[in-house]
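Lab meeting, action items carried over

1. Structure of the two-component assembly. Owner: GW. Status: complete.
Input record:
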Amino acid sequence: MSSSLRRLFRFIRPYRALAVWSLVLLAVLVCLDLAIPRLIQRIIDHGILAHDRRVVLTTALVMLGIAVLGTFIAIGNNAFSVRVGEGVARDLREALFLRIQSYSFGNLDRQKTGQLMVRLTSDVAAIKALIQISLRIGTRAPLMMIGSVLLMISTSRDLALTLLPLLGVTTVLIVFFVARMEPLFRKVQTKLDGLNNVLQENIAGARLVKALVRADHEAARFAVVNGEMTDQSIRVMKFMAAMMPVLSVCVSAGMVIVVWSGGLQAIQGRLSLGQIVAFSNYLLSTMVPLVMMTLLSNTWAAGLVSLRRLDEIFDTVPDVRDRPDAVTLGATAQPRVAFDEVSFAYHGAHNEPVLTDVSLEARPGQTVAILGATGAGKSTLVNLIPRFYDATAGRVLIDGHDVKAVTHDSLLSLAGVVPQEAILFSGTVRDNIRYGKPDAGEDEVVAAARAAQAHEFISRLPRGYDAPVEPRGANFSGGQKQRLALARALLLRPRLLILDDSTSAVDVRTEIEIQDALEADKAGRTTFVVAQRISTVLKADQILVLDKGRVVARGTHRELLASSPVYREIYDSQLGGRSPS
Amino acid sequence: MSAGAPAAQPTSPRPGTEGARGALQAMGPRFGGRLEKPKDGRATLRRLAEYFRPFRFTLLIVGACVVLYTFLGLMNPYLLGVALDRFVSNHDAAGLGRIALLMLAAAVGGNAIQVLANGLMAGISQRALKDLRRDLFAHLQASPLAFFDARAPGELMSRLTNDIDAINQAVAQNVTSLLASVLSMGGILVAMFVLDRWLALASVLVVPIMFWFTRFVAVYTRRGFKDLQKALGELNGVMEESISGQKVVKLFRRGEAVTAAFRARNAEVYRAGVYANTYALLLMPLTSVLGNLFIIVLAGLGGFLALAGLVSVGVIASFISYAQSFINPLRQLSNLYNTIQAALAGAERVFQILDGPRETADEPTAMPLTAVRGDVRFQHVTFSYVKGSPVIHDMTFEARPGQVVALVGPTGAGKTTIINLLTRFYEIDSGAITIDGVDIRALRKDDLRRRLGLVLQDTYLFASTVRENIRYGRLDAGDEDVRQAALLADADHFIRQLPQGYDTVLSERGGNLSQGQRQLLAIARTLLADPAILILDEATSSIDTRTEAHIQQSLLRLMKGRTSFVIAHRLSTIRDASQVLVIADGRIIERGTHDALVAQQGFYQRLYVSQYKGEAI
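Predicted assembly:
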């Protein structure tokens, strides 16, 4: 926790001056507030009861001055504290965003977008609330309390002592309520999650529920969680319903003690009327902040929890970083790619290896296809080339350079990778295709789209290349998205093209047209293709068959058909084991 | 690979957005409440009130309690003045003791009544909300599939939870305090006039200033938060897109451009945030400053009046005490207003959903469907998702009992639509679909669906145990039945390898299983349901071919003896089918067996035999 707080203070440091000023103004404001009951006392005792018109007038004017001054000070404190809170929130967001930007693929695999977004939005908001409360009511309330207690003692030590037990009881009650509140709310949250879960399943699984005619069953499930949620909510609300009145009784009891005990002392002439009035005002300014702080305790706790949650993001170190002595990879026309006994395991070598002792060589201009069952390690293998992950053992070489010894930027500028999951961005179709080269000309965009067999469907869109793309490409089908992603990669004319099952959602006929287009242009590059369909790999210069992370066969289609039972099995499973008619 | 109804295509679920969207809501103005307004607040309120009707007598008691405790709360400041004037000034210790006990009694009594009222209200409001949630759920269940197809599940979900939460917030906490605030403000004004006319008039002058001030702040706050909401929306858009597309950003080395876009939006949020919060957060400190002003006016003016012998010290003390209790309700009112508006806006949307279409009810004459032979016919069926643009044109075909019908054709041709019609997820425009000669519209919908077994490409699993997921096919099935079904589906082997076997709890949507394993569970589930007619959307692009071959074995077992419709991707399925329907643009363009179709040298031959292009064996 202390390290999280230290981090928070580091973010506050640029706003130190504002924060300090804000607190100074707050302290002044508290002093002004505390002066008012004293001045009322003066009006009563020295003005009214002493029949001194001048005292009434001057005291009233002083109080008015205090109110005006207080207004400006409150505005100042507000302006400063808001700037501190918003500024820290802005800086936190930026620091988090940049940190996430620096993550490599391995880091990203372990984080969900939704979770990261929650860190960036609601957690940052909770921390902002924490800061703003600390610079305002959170500091003001305890100051008010301490000041009021001191002034109560100075007004009448006896009366203050009489109230001491009550203050103790109130504090105990508040501690009790705060301690009980949190677990109760957590229970409601759990019940709410349960309720939402059933609702979620019935929305997302509506088709299944209807198909299996399970409406009654689901309604019964919902009735149970709905009832539980209701009961738990009622329990919490009844508890909360008791809290405020009980604390309010404490305040009233205090007032009664002041009136009674103070009144008796006044009768004996040991206390003035003004003192009683002042005392009762101070009592209120002791108790009210106490109650307020109870209500604020949730905000405090939430802010601290959020602060701790950010640690996870800040403490994650990118898996892949440039070495200090990294060299820039030179521009070769068609790179030679080699794997030298490469092994790989996710999250460190002690885990189950995904790849074991893989060696291969792709000569300049060659097309290498990788085939194998789901989970055989195909994607992992090609992801090692642009260094999305680092090999656990062995070396991945491009033109003789270990990929770990070159700058990641120069490596990426060489490679074009088309992953299976085509992620598009909001904007136009054209923006998406020229994403890697925003100044690309129209002819380049169209040529890339043609090669990816996307030109035809783009032209049929109402606004063609200017048609809007919704976030994540939600308005395009899977096959269309894949073709746009392919065009985006082809536009850069990469000298090393990696297709990671990137046409899986494209129908067979279109896929063949894409292959033909790539084939016609293949002289310019070295290509890796990960494929499920055997039809995709037929023409490759070499086919590697992976099984459980090992290369079990390699060769051309013809060679493998003759020599590899695994390849044969895959072939049969797809083409049905009979020769085509 | 056919992606369902056209209406469903743009609504692919977007994982992760729920959390972010919820967060956006949470980021809204904490201090100023949400900033939504219902379109027709009055009608919504009336409808919401319906849910409270069953509790109207209890509500009356609550109302009486609120009046009572507000009144008791108003007594103490008055008694304070009396104590000072009549007993302290006159040195009457016994009288002072009596009045002190009276004050204590009023405080304890008032607060006890408040506990009672709040407790009763908690019960009422939560039960009313429970009924509202129950109605909402029941309506969702009765909604036609088109409703779900047209919405992203995540979005619908977060909207519902947010709306229900907004209603909850208002109903649970605010109705009684709104009443109490208004009552106590009115009561204080009355009490003040009873005590002293002149001081009361002076106070009344302060009130409009405070009202005006609160309104002024509220107007700017509202404007500020509107801008802030917009800025936050844009920032969140940039953040979400670049985080979810981070790999692509890295790949294309666009980190700097993305960061620049982020910075610009972030700066805008800062600017809008400072503006909005400067106004919103001003309310608290300034009302207390204004409260001081109130007290000062009373003390100053009271002082002069006292000097003139017009008021007593006790009355001044009472006034100051009233002034202090006047500020709190005033401060609360603006917050309450926003919360209640947001709740009404939420309620309005919930009611909108409740008013949405329901699945067509069964005809009163609808017949049960008992033994099914499995003779399925489509006769001149025409259907459109959107009126005027039919997606199925005058379609006629027949599947005889036990036959396997393969549906093939390009994406979007209407294959999934045919299945949606057979299950009556959607109702046909014209023509007829019959099972064993009976029009399916004359059957009870539930009976019809019980006879149909669906294995869909996108397998839906619940976040419960493997056993419960399989049992979902037949709820009264014993553990042994479940295991038998798993064995038949070839799923038993991998299930037993899971950490807790059949008791392994699946993560949301079965995320901890591979696609192939999920499909095997779905097959087991369908086997357990033992349907008469099978509908399979067989292939998925992400299952490798060997796993696929494995599943194929299980599917064959499932299809045995049942009339089956298969949206087929595998040549082997198509080749073994009794008949192949080639569908394009909502029409059957070719039909026959595989061999006959290949011989025809038509569309089918071009589409399917092209897979072999490149090399012949």
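2. GW to write a short summary for the group page. Key points so far: Chain B has a mean pLDDT of 81. Chain B touches chain A through 175 residues (CB under 8 Å).
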